[in-house]
Specification:
about 290 residues; alpha/beta; Nucleotidyltransferase, domain 5; 3 domains; five-stranded mixed β-sheet; 11 helices; about 10% strand; elongated
Length: about 290
């Protein structure tokens, strides 16, 4: 026994059943690096920016960044790192269809979309602030999933939906045959709203009573909005909520978030690919 070897170390080696030489060889060996370290870092950066991305969108984003990755490897790493999404919360229906205003037939059900500005879909949701509720009205292009009009306010009166519609009409060129689809809520059935649509030659379509699947595109958008923006933040007041939601809609949802229905591309990029270098003003980028 060498007197240079500390006694506690000898006891530990005996207890572990290893020799002193084996212990020193292990201690001197270079530690093996995690072969997934760089990939893990990339995945966690994407998951931090888009916490509700599943393994499919993470894989698509990595491939867009030039990576050659296997989806099974991505799913395994995300499962080990507890990055797979779990969703439990339900949604509140805010539609008031108990009115005597004219109700229009569902034209959207029969449509086969081939381009933008053929079908616009609209809906309203509520957003909770620290001390009050506010309401968000949105209009999406059903083909590109792009938000083309929105308004946030404390009221559910007609001015909310009219503001969103005015924004959409400013941003897009109304094409012949354009259909506007919504639920049967009083805001969308009001004379002011339907007259504005008719004045621009837009055909009116409404969902069947009590059937949220008739407006599935907007329902899916509202789910994305709630899980990826609203439930992650606490808004102080209406101006704070407006600024943050504007940033999410215009900078994240329209221009960065990948949509599986668009071949894992953001709506703005998808629209540019349709229009080519001679894009019309109807699909031009909107300044923030």
């Amino acid at each position: 026994m060498s007197s240079a070897t500390p006694l506690p170390l000898l006891r530990l080696c005996r207890m572990a059943g290893v020799s002193r030489a084996g212990f020193y060889r292990w201690r001197c060996e270079p530690q093996r690096s995690d072969p997934d370290m760089d990939l893990r870092d990339q995945i966690q950066r994407i998951a931090l920016e888009f916490p509700c991305y599943g393994w499919r969108r993470i894989t698509a984003e990595l491939r867009r960044q030039g990576g050659v990755v296997n989806h099974k490897r991505i799913r395994r790493i995300m499962q080990l790192d507890n990055l797979l999404c779990l969703r439990h919360r339900k949604f509140v229906v805010t539609t008031d269809s108990g009115h005597r205003l004219p109700v229009y037939p569902n034209l959207a059900r029969q449509m086969v979309l081939t381009g933008i500005d053929q079908l616009w879909v609209a809906d309203i949701t509520y957003i909770r602030l620290q001390e009050e509720f506010v309401y968000l009205a949105v209009i999406l292009d059903a083909f590109s999933r792009r938000v083309i009009g929105w308004a946030l306010d404390r009221t559910l009166e007609n001015c909310l939906t009219l503001s969103a519609l005015h924004m959409a009409l400013i941003r897009r060129l109304v094409q012949p045959g354009l259909v506007h689809h919504s639920d049967r809520g009083v805001q969308y059935a009001s004379k002011d709203y339907t007259d504005l649509l008719k004045d621009h030659g837009i055909r009116i379509s409404m969902s069947r009573k009590g059937n949220p699947y008739d407006n599935a595109t907007c329902e899916s958008f509202m789910k994305t909005l709630k899980y990826e923006e609203v439930f992650r933040n606490e808004y102080r007041d209406l101006p704070d909520a407006c600024a943050r939601i504007r940033s999410f809609l215009e900078r994240v949802y329209n221009r960065k978030r990948l949509h599986s229905a668009l071949g894992y591309r953001p709506p703005a990029e998808f629209e540019r690919s349709l229009q080519g270098p001679s894009a019309s003003p109807a699909s031009s980028e909107v300044p923030l």
